[in-house]
Structure formats: structure tokens, C-alpha cells
């Protein structure tokens, strides 16, 4: 792991240092991985109370203009016409082969205004890709400088009210602009109820301090963010999905309305239609290892005849599940829950079986 | 009378009568974070100096623990199978990893004592 001067730094880095964070490099950023409580307690705290995550490494783009909606429906397999104001949707950027360039949350803020949230490691690539498509449209794609905080867990709504921000009217995957240059959605990456809030960097320290003044809230690092999202069955781009995986294999077709898949119009539509009609060769599934030994990204998966039939793309220990958890890709015929497989870890055979996702039930506030 | 050595790889080795007990240091367990699994060797296994003897796994990653000298595994800490967090709570006590019969104790010459080790991680 190189920790050079090339890493980008979070605007709130001093607060994380003060809180005793241990840092590491992730997607080109110097990020807090854990705090003194440790990943296990941080993870459980988030599921029980409220965890505060600094996700300012992620990039927000304001997409604005008379053709913003048609532009986004070209760039993503997204029905912007059917996306009401203040509604958020999970979607993807596809290449012509229907490979996933990035996964995104797109929110409609007005007739001609959208907010796009992209992954840190893909932000530069996404911006270039979007700008290339934008050439033929009356639209601008503007990266925003924001501090981006996620507050996740059953107490998140109450903690925010205490911090002077009442977002109790929002339901899962809806959004608001509570103050000038602020943006908030009721969504997240943990499987819990919670919010993601973008705000101007100069207003962020005071806001974060108000949240942390509530004993129900504490900083949570990237390590627990990863174990939380893995238990929730959510993909990490660059690991579980990438430019060589398509939405059908990745089990993300739920995010692309059937009508849109048939009518096309978005980049990658033809390739996706072909993949769907021929049937994807492999499928992303949850994997539960037997025993306590974790299986991790890169471990090959074999059938009972010791033929390689897939691979693990994310794996670790699930503190709430109480056992190791993983996800990966397997041949379509072996994607059924309960199918026994073998993961090879350092020459040892670890029995695993295909397990439904998520490992811990989602607890979204659907209203 | 036992003697305790420390390595640059953050292991401790306590030697008594030709047998070494090996574990990781408090500094190491802190760096690794909460351990969830410890892969221990078979008793009787021959280990060569520098070879991976044990793998400790935290929530996020797996890390190797090396044999500090040649020898044969005499005993492993079975308690870690059900409670790997002992390595976090008592790295130099109940969280020991394995014991080995040393082939040549002089291979440990030149390792750090506790004071030198503490200075190296300060």
C-alpha cells in the first residue's frame, strides 16, 4: 500500500485524526479505516444505533440543462421520464458491451436538474465518459466540492433531528435540498435505514460535531463500511462488478425496467438485450463458508468434481451475521441457494454454499 | 529461566528449555484489528525459519505469521479455534499461537529484546 503525496485528503481529516482514526489508502484517498472502537464494534454500533461515515471521497455531479433527462436516459438504463421529483434510483453506466463502468445513485431535483453520486475510484473516468456523451445534448455535468456524510442505523433520523436537520418526511430513496447547496437522500450502503448528506465543506465541521455530540452517534471507518455492505449484499464496484461484468450476470437487472431493456435507447442496450435473451453464463451470488475461516476476494470456487466453476469477489467476516460472508460469481446452473461448492484458500478446501442475499435483512424506511 | 525475543515482523518468542512459544505483539494485534480466525499448523509439522506457520485473519484481511527459527510444532493454542479474539485481548498471554521444539536456538541470536522492540515501534 503506497501512502505517498499523491493521495487525496478529506476536508475533515483533522477531525478523524482527533478521533484516533487509523488511515489507509482507498481509491486514491487517505481514508479512515477504523477508529479505536475497532471494526467489530463499529459495525455492530451502526446496526444498533447510528454510525457516521465520511464518504467525501465519493463524487457528486450536478447534471443540469434543458436535455438533462434525455441525456441521463442515454447514459444510463434509467427511465428519467418516470422518475419523479425528489426520487432517487440506483443505476449503472454501461459501455457498448454492457459492461459496468460504474454504479450510481441518480436523483431528480427538478425538471432540468439531477444529482449523480459516483464512486471515488471512477469519478475521473465517469466525468470524461459523461462529458463525451453530453456533447450532443443541452446539458452540463458539473462536479461539486462537498463534504459527504452518511449517517446510518435505526437512530439516524433522531440523531439528525437533534442536530437540527429534520429529514423525517423522507422515505427510502427520496431526497431533499434542506439548505442552500445541501443535498440529502434517505439511502445508504449498509442495509440500514439512514441518510447521505452532502454539504459545503466550510459548514461540515460544525454539523459533524453536532451529530457526534449525540451519544448514539459515532464515527465508523471504511473497514466496517465494507463489512456492512457485504452483509447487505451490496456490490463494490471494482470488486464485485466492473467493465467486464454486465447487469444480468451481476444480478442487477432489477435496477433496469423491463420495458427499457426491450426498447433500448441507452448505451449498451443491444449488448444487454443479447445477453438477457441468450442467458448470462454466470451469476453473482451470496456465499456462506462453513466454519469460521473467511474466504476472500480472488479465491477460486470449485464444484464437487474439483472443476473451477467460479470465483469469490468479496469476502470477510460478518459481525452481525456471526459467521464469514462472501459473494462471488458461479456458473448459472450452480446459482441456486444451497448449492454446495468448495473455495480454495491457501491450498485448503473450504466448503461453502450458495446463500441468499442479503445475509442480514434490509431495514429501509419505506414509509 | 525463560528469555523473550522480538522480531521485526512483530512476533514474540519465549524460549524455555529448547521450546519456543510464539505469538504476535500488542502492536501487531492493534494494527490488525479484531481477529476472526486463526489458521494453526498441525502438531508435529516441521517448520523452516521464515516459513509461514500461522495465518491470522481480521475482519478485513489475512496476515502471515512466520516461524522465527527451524523446528517442529509441539503444541498449538486450541482455544483460538473458538475464540480468536484472545489474540487481541491477551496477545502475550492467553493469545499465544504455537509452541515449537527448536532445532538450533542460536538462530534466535540477534533478535531484539523487549526494550529494543518497544523503541522500534515507538
TrEMBL record, chain A:
It comes from the Bacteria. Residues 283-359 form the Aminomethyltransferase C-terminal domain. InterPro entries: GcvT, GcvT/YgfZ/DmdA, GcvT/YgfZ_C, GcvT_C, GCVT_N, TrmE/GcvT-like. Its EC number is 2.1.2.10. Residues 14-257 form the GCVT N-terminal domain. It catalyses: N(6)-[(R)-S(8)-aminomethyldihydrolipoyl]-L-lysyl-[protein] + (6S)-5,6,7,8-tetrahydrofolate = N(6)-[(R)-dihydrolipoyl]-L-lysyl-[protein] + (6R)-5,10-methylene-5,6,7,8-tetrahydrofolate + NH4(+). Gene3D superfamilies: Aminomethyltransferase beta-barrel domains (3.30.70.1400), Aminomethyltransferase fragment (4.10.1250.10), Probable tRNA modification gtpase trme, domain 1 (3.30.1360.120). Keywords: Aminotransferase, Transferase. One of its GO terms (molecular function) is aminomethyltransferase activity. It is an enzyme of class 2 (transferase). SUPFAM superfamilies: Aminomethyltransferase beta-barrel domain, Folate-binding domain. Belongs to the GcvT family. This is aminomethyltransferase.
Automatic annotation (TrEMBL), chain B:
Residues 19-101 form the Lipoyl-binding domain. Signal peptide: none annotated. The glycine cleavage system is composed of four proteins: P, T, L and H. InterPro entries: 2-oxoA_DH_lipoyl-BS, Biotin_lipoyl, GCV_H, GCV_H/Fam206, GCV_H_sub, Single_hybrid_motif. The glycine cleavage system catalyzes the degradation of glycine. The H protein shuttles the methylamine group of glycine from the P protein to the T protein. Belongs to the GcvH family. Its cofactor is (R)-lipoate. The lineage of its organism: Bacteria, Pseudomonadati, Pseudomonadota, Alphaproteobacteria, Hyphomicrobiales. Binds 1 lipoyl cofactor covalently. PROSITE patterns: BIOTINYL_LIPOYL, LIPOYL. The gene is gcvH. Keywords: Lipoyl. The modification N6-lipoyllysine is found at residue 60. This is Glycine cleavage system H protein.
Amino acid at each position: 500500500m503506497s501512502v505517498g503525496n499523491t493521495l487525496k485528503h478529506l476536508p475533515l481529516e483533522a477531525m478523524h485524526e482527533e478521533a484516533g482514526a487509523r488511515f489507509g489508502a482507498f481509491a486514491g484517498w487517505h481514508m479512515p479505516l477504523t477508529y479505536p472502537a475497532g471494526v467489530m464494534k463499529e459495525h455492530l454500533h451502526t446496526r444498533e444505533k447510528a454510525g457516521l461515515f465520511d464518504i467525501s471521497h465519493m463524487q457528486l455531479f450536478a447534471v443540469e440543462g434543458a436535455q438533462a433527462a434525455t441525456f441521463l436516459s442515454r447514459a444510463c438504463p434509467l427511465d428519467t421520464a418516470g422518475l419523479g421529483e425528489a426520487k432517487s434510483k440506483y443505476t449503472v453506466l454501461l459501455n457498448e458491451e454492457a459492461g459496468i463502468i460504474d454504479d450510481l445513485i441518480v436523483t431528480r431535483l427538478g425538471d432540468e436538474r439531477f444529482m449523480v453520486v459516483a464512486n471515488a475510484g471512477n469519478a475521473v473516468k465517469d466525468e470524461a465518459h459523461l462529458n463525451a456523451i453530453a456533447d450532443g445534448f443541452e446539458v452540463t455535468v458539473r462536479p461539486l466540492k462537498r463534504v459527504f456524510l452518511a449517517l446510518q442505523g435505526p437512530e439516524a433520523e433522531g440523531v439528525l433531528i437533534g442536530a437540527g436537520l429534520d429529514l423525517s418526511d423522507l422515505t427510502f430513496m427520496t431526497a431533499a435540498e434542506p439548505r442552500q447547496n445541501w443535498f440529502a437522500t434517505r439511502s445508504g450502503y449498509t442495509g440500514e435505514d439512514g441518510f447521505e448528506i452532502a454539504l459545503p465543506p466550510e459548514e461540515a465541521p460544525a454539523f459533524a460535531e453536532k451529530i457526534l455530540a449525540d451519544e448514539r452517534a459515532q464515527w465508523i471507518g471504511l473497514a466496517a463500511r465494507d463489512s456492512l455492505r457485504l452483509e447487505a449484499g451490496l456490490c463494490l464496484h471494482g470488486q464485485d462488478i466492473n467493465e467486464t461484468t454486465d447487469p444480468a450476470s451481476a444480478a442487477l437487472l432489477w435496477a433496469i425496467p423491463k420495458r427499457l431493456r426491450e426498447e433500448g435507447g441507452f448505451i449498451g442496450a443491444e449488448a444487454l438485450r443479447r445477453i438477457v435473451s441468450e442467458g448470462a453464463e454466470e451469476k453473482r451470488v451470496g456465499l456462506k463458508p462453513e466454519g469460521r475461516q473467511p474466504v476472500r476476494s480472488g479465491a477460486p470456487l470449485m464444484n464437487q468434481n474439483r472443476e473451477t466453476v467460479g470465483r469469490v469477489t468479496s469476502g470477510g467476516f460478518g459481525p452481525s451475521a456471526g459467521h464469514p460472508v462472501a459473494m462471488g460469481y458461479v456458473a448459472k446452473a450452480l446459482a441456486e441457494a444451497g448449492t454446495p461448492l468448495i473455495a480454495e484458500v491457501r491450498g485448503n478446501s473450504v466448503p461453502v454454499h450458495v446463500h441468499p442475499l442479503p445475509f442480514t435483512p434490509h431495514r429501509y424506511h419505506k414509509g | 529461566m525463560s528469555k523473550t525475543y522480538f522480531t521485526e515482523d512483530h512476533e514474540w518468542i519465549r524460549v524455555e528449555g529448547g521450546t519456543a512459544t510464539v505469538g504476535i505483539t500488542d502492536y501487531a494485534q492493534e494494527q490488525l484489528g479484531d481477529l476472526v480466525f486463526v489458521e494453526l499448523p498441525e502438531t508435529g509439522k516441521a517448520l523452516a525459519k521464515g516459513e509461514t506457520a500461522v495465518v491470522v485473519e481480521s475482519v478485513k484481511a489475512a496476515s502471515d505469521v512466520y516461524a522465527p527459527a527451524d523446528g517442529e510444532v509441539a503444541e498449538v493454542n486450541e482455544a483460538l479455534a473458538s475464540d480468536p479474539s484472545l489474540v487481541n485481548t491477551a496477545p502475550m498471554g492467553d493469545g499465544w499461537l504455537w509452541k515449537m521444539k527448536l532445532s538450533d536456538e542460536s538462530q534466535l541470536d540477534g533478535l531484539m529484546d523487549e526494550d529494543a522492540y518497544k523503541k522500534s515501534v515507538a
